[in-house]
Amino acid sequence: MTERLVSHLRYAALAVPNFDEETEFFKKHWGLTELERTEDLAYLVAEGSPEPYILRLRRAEKRIDLVAFGTKDRGDLHKLADKLHAEGVQFVHEPRELSQPGGGYGFRVFDGDGRVLEFSTEVELRQSRKIREREPIPVKLSHVVFNSADLNTSAQWYIDHLDFAISDSLVTPDGRELMHFLRTNPHHHSIAIAQGPHHSLHHVSFEMRGIEEWMRGTGKILRSGTRMIWGPGRHNVGDNTFAYFLSPAGNTIEYTTELAVLDEDTWHPSRMDVSDLDTQDQWGTAAEMSELVARESFNDIDKGLFVAPPV
């Protein structure tokens, strides 16, 4: 079994100019619970997750503030920090006690493209609950996907420095890579990186309890008047369901469920042709992927690269 210093995905932090509207959307329609809120910051909880929060929103110019991961303990966290220092990775701050909800101990770095990553341990976990049958709210944060103007270089940074592994890739008919799905534990992917015209957020994905809850959640969001970009369907890569929507801030967000869990000792990555309709959607219920659909997830250029957020 592969041993890694990064154990799992914790939360995503986004800055949005329409902070009040975006926060209300995630509470009223998307199904997250407000943990704590100030004039310019909101920490949002998934009822099924023990993480202190899974989404942080900040009032500011649109950008990815950071994506946070966990380590098993303080020993692994210091091993990771030492490794990244030795490899010349740029630090935002050194390991220290953290002051955000849930506390903990951690550090932040810039990835190869300039996105901020946080690694933490000893976080005070919250009392989560079992999501009820047919309850259409997220259980947890599933994964985060980035766009990159240089896909392979961006993905290789995570492989070289954080020991992420490619689970599968999407390619064009002539073999050109379009997307890599990267794991840090047996779940098929915690992050993915897509080839795009610039560095930006592709989408943030939220795990539902099961197919019934995923479908009911999808219907709930449709009835709220939120625009669906693509879905509902079921991907081949990762074997997970998908329903993509556009949040009020123009970020793509996804309800998903049943993401594959791999036997890492026997798994071999596949290169799946995006022109094969079964690659896009096994069920055939979603519209065929098109440039129009893809363009929505290119998103706005991330203006926060190599600029640490103030919190």
Annotated CATH homologous superfamily: 2,3-Dihydroxybiphenyl 1,2-Dioxygenase, domain 1
| Strand order, sheet with most strands | 14-15-16-13-9-12-11-10-17
Structural class: alpha/beta
Counting structural domains, the number is: 1
Overall shape: it is: globular
Can you tell me the CATH class? Alpha Beta
Radius of gyration: 18 Å
Q: How many distinct beta strands?
A: 17
Number of helical segments?
6
The CATH topology turns out to be: 2,3-Dihydroxybiphenyl 1,2-Dioxygenase, domain 1
- Percent strand equals 35-45%
Order of helices and strands: EHEEEEHEEEEHEEEEHEEEEHH
* Distance, first to last CA: 36 Å
| Poorly predicted ranges | none
The CATH architecture can be given as Roll
Largest β sheet strand count, sense and barrel closure: 9 strands, mixed
Topology:
Layout: E1 8-16, H1 19-30, E2 33-37, E3 41-45, E4 55-59, E5 63-70, H2 74-86, E6 91-97, E7 105-110, E8 116-121, E9 140-148, H3 151-162, E10 165-171, E11 177-183, E12 191-195, E13 200-207, H4 211-223, E14 228-234, E15 241-246, E16 252-256, E17 270-273, H5 277-280, H6 291-298
Parallel strand pairs: 1-4, 5-8, 9-12, 10-17, 13-16
Antiparallel strand pairs: 1-5, 2-3, 3-4, 6-7, 7-8, 9-13, 10-11, 11-12, 14-15, 15-16
Pfam families: Glyoxalase
Organism: Microbacterium album
Domain VOC: 8-122, 140-258
